[in-house]
Write a structure and sequence with these properties.
Layout lengths: L1 H39 L2 H27 L13 H31 L8 H28 L2 H28 L5 H28 L7 H10 L6 E10 L2 E11 L4 H18 L3 E10 L6 H11 L4 E9 L2 E11 L4 H19 L4 E9 L7 E2 L2 H18 L3 E11 L2 E10 L5 H18 L3 E10 L5
Parallel strand pairs: 2-3, 5-6, 9-10
Antiparallel strand pairs: 1-2, 4-5, 7-8, 8-9
Helix pairs in contact: 1-2, 1-4, 2-3, 2-5, 2-6, 3-5, 3-6, 4-5, 5-6, 7-8, 9-10, 11-12
Length: about 475
């Protein structure tokens, strides 16, 4: 986070410095052209000087806008202050159109009135050449910084300097035409300058209005959609929303994922989606939301477990059968052992109803209610005689059950609800879990018949050690 903040701070400083140098450059150009324009009487040069006056105002506005846009988000501006740059660019557009109209009007007026007397000088030409050099340097530097920092205001400023450069070249052409006996070329060039300014203003206006209206960059939505769709775990791309604000691109991506995914897997998918967007646009601020979807490849078991998990009801031993096209589901439902049967039955009925709503009204659902000790119990070691009795019973019945051997690590603890037994044993590692579980259950029932005080037996089965 600190690295990103340092990167953003560096961009802010570069933008402010670029804007400040633009003010100084515009002021120097304006003074030089103004003096030369009035000295020669050239409308083209005077209009060019007026354009430079607009540039001074525009660059000053750009500087102020850049400083404001760098402020962080607050309670009133949740997306930051980046749109200030768009507003500044829009204002600069308005100035360009006003200037364009004024220059075109004066040029047409002079042509109609036959006013075409200009007095060019080498000093005026020197001013224009110097202006062209300064404009070219500022245009290059502003374009470079604007592209690297994604600044609309600096891009608009660069456009001003590029139009100023073209204007100066056209004024030089007007001086050349006047020197060869075509003084009316000055007014014609002035009109051409006005059209060029209007065209530059139109391009800037379109870009700025697109930003203010949150128009998505052309082709970017489709590119991001393709990348996000390729992220493992994304079942669908529901929506992509892009919103540019200054140097940042706020990106909202809504994806569809399997509703059976665990939270840690869902978080990982979101991170992969954000990384995919950053690969395309480094300045993107990505928000990813996920919508759970019922996918076609979900099993009935997964659907039943998901229903129970949503209702926060522990279930186990879920058995799914298909009987003549009809689904039958049976399961063990665990509830707080202190709950009354009436309350437990309500919980079971609601779960059964939810399963039927999911799988179909004709689905057969049977629940077996079991007590679940929801609070921790105070345990205490029992006497050695009781431990020996339980261990002996386990070892004896293990031989009768078969497949279970090497009963060890027998521990017996007393609680207010009865005895809790923990033990380890070994079985053939080639046997399947169902076989082992059935034999362990059989052993448990036999031991509890010997020691009725046992309320629960927890077995840990381990693979049988290979013979030495």
């Amino acid at each position: 986070m600190s690295g990103a903040h340092s990167h953003s701070h560096s961009h802010a400083e570069r933008k402010e410095q670029a804007a400040a140098w633009s003010i100084a450059a515009s002021a120097v150009i304006t003074v030089g052209k103004g003096v030369a324009g009035f000295a020669t009487g050239s409308l083209a040069l005077i209009s060019d000087a007026a354009h430079s006056v607009v540039d001074v105002a525009a660059t000053t506005l750009t500087y102020l806008a850049v400083r404001t846009a760098n402020k962080p988000a607050d309670d009133k501006h949740h997306y930051g202050h980046g749109k200030v740059e768009s507003l500044a660019a829009l204002f600069e557009t308005a100035l360009l159109f006003i200037l364009s109209g004024a220059v075109a009007y004066e040029g047409i007026r002079r042509l109609m009135a036959g006013e075409s007397d200009i007095h060019w000088s080498w000093a005026a030409i020197g001013v224009l050449l110097a202006s062209i050099v300064i404009d070219a340097i500022r245009w290059y530097q502003l374009t470079k910084v604007a592209r690297e920092t994604n600044s609309e205001a600096l891009a608009a400023d660069a456009l001003h300097f590029s139009s100023d450069l073209v204007n100066s070249v056209l004024v030089l052409a007007a001086f050349g035409a006047a020197a060869y006996g075509y003084p009316q070329a000055d007014s014609l060039v002035a009109i051409g300058v006005s059209l060029f300014i209007a065209l530059a203003g139109f391009r800037l206006a379109k870009q700025t209005i697109d930003s203010l209206l949150d128009t998505a960059p052309a082709g970017l939505t489709e590119e991001i959609r393709a990348l996000v769709t390729a992220v493992p775990g994304v079942a669908a791309v529901e929506a992509i929303k892009l919103r540019a604000a200054g140097p940042q691109l706020f990106t909202e991506v809504e994806i569809g994922v399997s509703r059976t995914l665990p939270l840690d897997r869902l978080s990982a998918i979101k991170e992969l989606v954000a990384a995919a967007v950053h690969d395309v646009r480094e300045e993107a601020v990505v928000t990813v939301t996920a919508t759970p979807l019922a996918l076609d490849d979900e099993t009935i078991l997964e659907r039943v477990l998901l229903i129970a998990a949503k209702r926060r009801v522990p279930v186990h031993h879920v058995t799914v059968q298909t009987l003549n096209g009809r689904i039958s589901v049976s399961l063990d439902l665990e509830v707080d052992g202190r709950m009354t049967l009436g309350s437990a039955h309500i919980v079971a009925s609601r779960l059964e109803t939810a399963i039927r709503e999911e799988l179909g009204a004709d689905t057969e659902v049977e629940t077996h209610i079991e007590p679940l000790v929801s609070s921790s119990l105070e345990g205490r070691d029992v006497d050695a005689e009781t431990v020996a009795q339980v261990a002996t019973s386990l070892a004896h019945h293990a031989k009768a059950v078969g497949i279970i051997s090497d009963v060890h690590s027998v521990r017996v603890r007393g609680t207010d609800h009865g005895l809790i037994v923990n033990y380890h044993c070994r079985v053939d590692p080639a046997l399947d879990v169902t076989q082992v579980h059935e034999k362990v259950d059989e052993l448990e029932h036999l031991v509890r018949s010997d020691v009725p005080a046992i309320t629960r037996i927890v077995s840990h089965t381990e693979p049988l050690r290979p013979a030495a």
